[in-house]
Each structure stands twice: as C-alpha cells, then as structure tokens.
Amino acid sequence: MGRVFGVPVYVAPSWFLVAALITWFFGNQLDRVLPGLGGGRYLVSLFFAVAFYASVLVHELAHTLAAIRFDLPVRRIQLQFFGGVSEIEKESQSPGREFVLAGAGPLLSLVLSGVFYAALLAVESDTVPGVLLAGLMVSNLIVAVFNLLPGLPLDGGRMLRAVVWRLSGSPMTGTVAAAWTGRVLAIVVLIGFPLATHYGAADDRQSFAGLESLTDALLAAILAAIIWTGAGNSLRMARLRERLPRLNARSLTRRAVPVTAETPLSEALRRANDAGARALVVVDAEGSPVSVVRESGIAGVPQHRRPWVAVSSLAQDLTDGMRVPADLGGEGLLDHLRATPATEYLVVEETGEIYGVLSTSDVERAFIDAMARHTPSAGGRSTG
Questions:
Q1: Has this prediction a pTM greater than 0.85?
Q2: Which tens digits make up the pLDDT trace of 7-39?
C-alpha cells in the first residue's frame, strides 16, 4: 500500500474479509441507533472499518518507530485478520528495550481511545459522527486491553517476557514463561469468552444454541487458535535462536583449491580430489581470488567434456558481499547471506587469506538440522 518511515505496508487478503464482516455487523447496529440512514448505514460502516484499521496501523507504527529508535530493522507492516503485525527482524538487546518496544503499541491505542473520547464530547451522540467516534473509542480501547493480556504473541506477553528476562537474566526463560502463559490464555479465551458473553447478555438467558452464542464461540475459537499458534511459534523461534550460534562459517566451509582461469575442469577436479577438497576458487596471476566455481555448473558438464571446459566458464565473479569472514556465525551469518544471495561464497580469514568456500546448500542443511533438534527455549516478533 506504500511506505511509512521507509517501511513497506501490506494488506493481507484476510483483511478484506474482516472489513466486510465489520461493515455488515456495524451496519446492523447502526440500523438500531440511527434507523433513518437506510442503506447508507453500510457506507458509514465501511468508513468505520477503514478508520479502525487505520488505528491498527498507527498502533503498529508505534512499534516500528520504537524499533527504528533502537536500530532494529523492520521488514514490513502487515494488516491482516484481527489486527496487524510489525515484522521486526532482530531481538531487542535488553529487557528494558523489549518492554518499551512491546508497550508502545498498546500505549498509543489508549491515547487514540482518549482522543476519540474527547472528540465525542464535542458532538451529539445520536449522530453519525457521534456513533463513529464512540465506535472508534471503544474499539481502540479493546485493542489496547486485548494486546496487554500477558501472553505471547500479544504485546503484553512480550512485556511479561521482558520482566522475567530482567529478573532471571535469561531472555529464553522470559520467552518460555510468556509463551506458556499465552497458551493458558488461549484456553481461557476459548472457554471464558462464550461464557462471559452469554451470562453477560440480556436477562432472558438466551440459549447456548442461539446464533449469537454460536458466533461468540466461533470468534473465541479463532482468537484462541491465533494466540496458541503464536505462542508455539515464539517457542520454536526461541529454540532456533538458541542454536543459531552453532551455525558458523568456519565449521560449514568446504576446503578449496586455487586454480587459474584457463585450467581445464578435469585437471582442477583432479587437484581437488588429491587435496581432499570439495570446492574450486579461481585466482589471478598474483594468487588473489577472483571468482568461485559453481557446484551446479560442474554437475552440468558431462564427464567426457570436462578436459575441454575451462573452470572460468563455470565461475561466478566475486563481489564484496560474497566474501564471508571465517569467524562469522549465528544471525550475523544469515543476515550476510540474505543481503547478497548466491550459491557459493568465498570464506576468508581476517588477513584476507582464503579459508574455503561456503555453499548455501550446506547452510540450509545445517539450518534445518538445528530446527529439528529439541531443546527448551524462547523468542518471537512484534504483534499488535
């Protein structure tokens, strides 16, 4: 939809479904409050749906601004089913920053609710502006309160994580506590929300089989599923972040042999085999690396053609991003590879000496292996 503070804003297809549901539901409510609107009530309801999600966007922008302030990259903001998500690519460096980053969104939603309340005092309550302002006041208050519930993936869960992190000294302990609290919260929502709406309804004690009760149960199930899934994702991300330091360029690098550009492929492979190496680096007359021979290129050359094919024809020229420090690891390594996509990278020591070649396929296998192992832990992303 555009960029705000340099961050792209996307709208998920599910938003249009929710906007239609809000338009239908709010339109029916308007018919009771302002019966004179007729069919125009749905146009007013559509405006409310757009204004509500504009408020959600402001909520997410609060997270984004806090992340930018703390030098945390934000990939994008996405408006979607039941709210929005600010996709922050890195974890906060301290529990204090985590607390501020998580609390910024609900705080701004509370401020918006107050602003709409103040504006409501200046208009008649039984007019279109009055109804819209009242709806936006209540909806922003609900967004703030809901997001402050102490369980991941909600903002309140991230604030709880920051508190436990501060007390225990371990971010993973904080995430485990907040994620399991989120799972308990999901069960409470699943059971408690339909009960609360049923017994809080009119005195006629409508049946649980009624349409409104079924709608409440469906809504509770969707909310509970979102919270439960988000809590589980936070735990999985934490486990992955705990294992990421084990991914380092030095341990994943293939030993390489240097060859000149005109060396036949068959000869280059013979030298690599004799040296126990699994990669080829093309060097110039001074021995400086200029390109890396692609593994896929080698595989595409038939055996009988290899004596007539020079390695330079199968090589990819080196760019600055394709030189990876041998000691780079963890998220730093993954960030480096994402910034410069390639199939092979030249791994070098601090002195500039060639250490070997890092293949993307080897990193992917190690990454999948890290995700497959089971150890307790924590992690997540900002949601609003």
A1: no
A2: 999 998 888 888 888 888 888 878 787 877 777
Q: In a 3-state reduction of DSSP, which class is residue 316?
A: strand
* Nearest C-alpha neighbor of 223 from the set 249, 264, 188: 188
User: 215-237, pLDDT tens digit by residue?
Assistant: 778 878 888 888 999 888 888 87
The neighbour count for residue 5, using CB atoms within 10 Å, is 12
Q: How many CB atoms sit inside 10 A of residue 180's CB?
A: 15
Q: Identify which of 157, 232, 66 has the alpha carbon closest to the alpha carbon of residue 383.
A: 157
- DSSP track, 165-222: HHHHS-HHHHHHHHHHHHHHHHHHHHHHHHHHHHHTS-TT---TTSHHHHHHHHHHHH
Q: Which residues of 103-124 are buried (b: 16+ CB within 10 A; e: fewer)?
A: bbbbbbbbebbeebbebbeeee
User: How many other β-carbons are positioned within 10 Å of the β-carbon of residue 27?
Assistant: 20
Structure tokens at 193: 């929300």
Nearest-5° angle of CA 167, CA 168, CA 173? Answer: 125
3-state SS, residue 275:
helix
Note whether 21 and 90 are within 8 A (CB).
no
**Amino acid letter, residue 235:** L
Kindly give the parts of the chain with pLDDT less than 70. Answer: 197-213, 245, 370-384
The per-residue DSSP string of 244-262 comes to GGG-BHHHHPBPEEEEETT
Instruction: Mark out the alpha helices in the chain (DSSP H runs).
Output: 13-33, 41-69, 95-120, 128-147, 155-168, 171-199, 211-243, 249-252, 265-275, 295-299, 330-339, 360-372
The amino acid sitting at 77 is I
For 358-383, give the DSSP string. Answer: EEHHHHHHHHHHHHHS--------EE
Measured between alpha carbons, how far apart are the two ends of the chain, in Å?
19
Residue 27, SS3 per DSSP: helix
Cα–chain-centroid distance for residue 300? 37
